[in-house]
């Protein structure tokens, strides 16, 4: 019996060594942690239960018979994050460059199945050179098995992907199918075709960092949602994101014991809107004053900055925020911000997180490139997402809510539950200048004295429509409130709506305007 135990312990020890001391040193030299070191940072101490530690590939082609490592380049299992159960896998770059194999797929798929059955979040730590070429089409089929389960798990359990090294070719699709992507600056990159292939096909020369680094996917492509400076920071960020999410779609997100006075009134909100309609202000300042102190976690902060999407807490409860950002493009909606907003709405709805929308939007961004790029189709995504969302939906119009953007951004017609407005709100079909050109034109045979000057018409139009009271008169706004009382009014409204139940017509699924 002692010999058999000794053999098991030796195999386990070999699995813990990954690709060996030399490769571990090389990993550290790049400023990266190993797969097991990352798991030690992410998971509560002593909570990790590993599965598949001794699995090895059975491939003998291209000298692979002599390149077998226990675990085959990925560590999989269960653990706890702040006491909550999670399923997690970590690719090990020290083993064959973390190359994706059939064994890796089997282990990850097994974990995905168990995570869905158990109703717990799935976290993937990605650090791989791509498909294991020596296995041919088997490795491609192996990717497909993972993708299929990513889709099956979508909307059932939270899925987080941390890109902590290379992620190329087909490997990028699994993170793209998950709920959140966190990338480590300087060491992570994602692309379908690498710099060498691009140069060979198009003649363009580009580095891996410029092609698919953390900044590129956070600020330009929108593939990633968070950027971190180190492995440790990325892992701590994953813990923070999880704290706003439920274990699965049948549960409510976890709430904290309230630590901020629900009756806190911020007088600064009463004067935060500039007197000049065209003067910007930072919507983040509004959010920081309304929600629980230091609870706002912005998502997609570098992508489409004319819109803000964020998690926060309100009296300890998890909340999703959608807001226009007047300091960028005057808060106008465009293609990228429409994608950003609609995705976040759908994500909050999937996981029972109430939505609060702060509106200050002059409309959709005009331009030939926007129209050619399909701003109609992209803008329709916001309408679709709000309309199908069944979670509590509240909105606060802080200033401009003009034209189609008013309708799209959580209006009554989009299924909004409570619509509030500040006295500074301007709710109108169109801007005063545009209305003047359309309505204040001299008719045939009309005496010029009977028409108003443009200046007079604009003043009259603004007086009549650029306020919240006309909308309140016809029931499109439930209440005009003092800005300082926004926090309390939202808390009271959500307390009532927490038991909201809404069902739709039976159908397989709708056609999202992608």
Describe the structure.
- The chain folds into two domains: 242 residues, 2-enoyl-CoA Hydratase, Chain A, domain 1; 190 residues, 2-enoyl-CoA Hydratase, Chain A, domain 1, CATH 3.90.226.
- 37% of the residues lie in helices and 17% in strands.
- It is of the alpha/beta class and 514 residues long.
- Strand 11 and strand 12 form a beta hairpin.
- About 1% of the residues have low confidence.
- Strands 10, 11, 12, 13, 14, 15, 16 and 17 form an eight-stranded mixed beta sheet that branches.
- Helix 12 packs parallel to helix 14 and helix 16 crosses helix 17.
Throw out a few tags for this protein.
2-enoyl-CoA Hydratase, Chain A, domain 1, 514 residues, eight-stranded mixed sheet, alpha/beta
Number of domains: 2
Distance N terminus to C terminus? 61 Å
The percent range for helix content is: 25-40%
The CATH superfamily of the largest domain bears the name 2-enoyl-CoA Hydratase, Chain A, domain 1
CATH topology (level 3) name of the largest domain? 2-enoyl-CoA Hydratase, Chain A, domain 1
Rg over CA atoms, rounded to whole Å, is: 27 Å
* Model regions low in confidence, pLDDT < 50 over at least 5 residues: 444-449
Percent of residues in β-strands: 15-25%
Note the total helix count.
19
Q: Compute the average pLDDT.
A: 90
Query: Main beta sheet: strand number and arrangement?
Result: 8 strands, mixed
Q: CATH architecture of the largest domain, please?
A: Alpha-Beta Complex
Based on secondary structure, the structural category is alpha/beta
Please tally the β strands and state the result.
17
Rough outline: elongated
| CATH top level assignment of the largest domain | Alpha Beta
């Amino acid at each position: 019996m002692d010999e058999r135990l000794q053999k098991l312990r030796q195999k386990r020890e070999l699995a813990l060594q990954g690709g060996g001391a030399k490769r571990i040193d090389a990993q550290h030299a790049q400023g990266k942690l190993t797969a097991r070191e990352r798991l030690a940072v992410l998971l509560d101490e002593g909570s990790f239960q590993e599965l598949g530690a001794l699995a090895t590939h059975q491939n003998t082609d291209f000298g692979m018979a002599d390149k077998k490592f226990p675990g085959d380049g990925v560590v999989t299992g269960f653990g706890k994050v702040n006491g909550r159960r999670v399923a997690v896998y970590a690719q090990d770059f020290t083993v064959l460059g973390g190359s994706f194999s059939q064994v890796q797929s089997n282990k990850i798929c097994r974990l995905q199945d168990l995570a869905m059955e158990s109703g717990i979040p799935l976290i993937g730590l990605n650090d791989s050179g791509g498909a294991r070429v020596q296995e041919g089409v088997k490795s491609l089929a192996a990717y497909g098995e993972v993708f299929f389960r990513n889709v099956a798990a979508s909307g059932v359990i939270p899925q987080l992907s941390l890109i902590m090294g290379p992620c190329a070719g087909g490997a990028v699709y699994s993170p793209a199918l998950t709920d959140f992507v966190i990338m480590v600056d300087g060491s992570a990159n994602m692309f379908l075709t690498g710099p060498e292939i691009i140069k060979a096909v198009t003649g363009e020369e580009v580095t891996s960092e410029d092609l698919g680094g953390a900044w590129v996917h956070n600020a330009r492509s929108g593939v990633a949602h968070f950027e971190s400076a180190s492995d440790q920071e990325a892992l701590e960020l994953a813990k923070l994101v999880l704290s706003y999410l439920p274990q699965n779609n049948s549960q409510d997100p976890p709430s904290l014991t309230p630590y901020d006075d629900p009756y806190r009134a911020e007088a600064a909100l009463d004067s935060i809107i500039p007197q000049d309609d065209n003067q910007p202000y930072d919507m983040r300042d509004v959010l920081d004053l309304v929600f629980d102190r230091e609870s706002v976690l912005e998502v997609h902060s570098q992508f489409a900055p004319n819109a803000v999407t964020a998690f926060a807490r309100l009296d300890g409860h998890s909340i999703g925020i959608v807001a226009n950002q007047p300091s960028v493009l005057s808060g106008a909606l465009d293609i990228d911000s429409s994608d950003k907003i609609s995705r976040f709405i759908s994500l909050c709805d999937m996981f029972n997180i109430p939505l609060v929308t702060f509106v200050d939007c002059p409309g959709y961004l005009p331009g030939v490139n926007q129209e050619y790029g399909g701003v109609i189709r992209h803008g329709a995504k916001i309408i679709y997402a709000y309309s199908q969302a069944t979670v509590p939906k509240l909105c606060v119009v802080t200033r401009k809510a003009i034209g189609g953007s008013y309708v799209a951004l959580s209006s009554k017609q989009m299924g909004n539950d409570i619509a509030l407005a500040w006295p500074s709100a301007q709710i109108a079909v169109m801007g005063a200048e545009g209305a003047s050109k359309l309505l204040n034109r001299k008719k045939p045979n009309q005496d010029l004295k009977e028409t108003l000057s443009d200046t007079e018409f604009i003043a009259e139009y603004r007086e009549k429509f650029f306020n919240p009271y006309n909308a309140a008169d016809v029931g499109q706004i439930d209440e005009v409130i003092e800005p300082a009382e926004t926090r309390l009014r939202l808390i009271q409204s959500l307390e009532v709506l927490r038991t909201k139940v809404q069902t739709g017509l039976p159908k397989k699924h709708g056609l999202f305007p992608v």
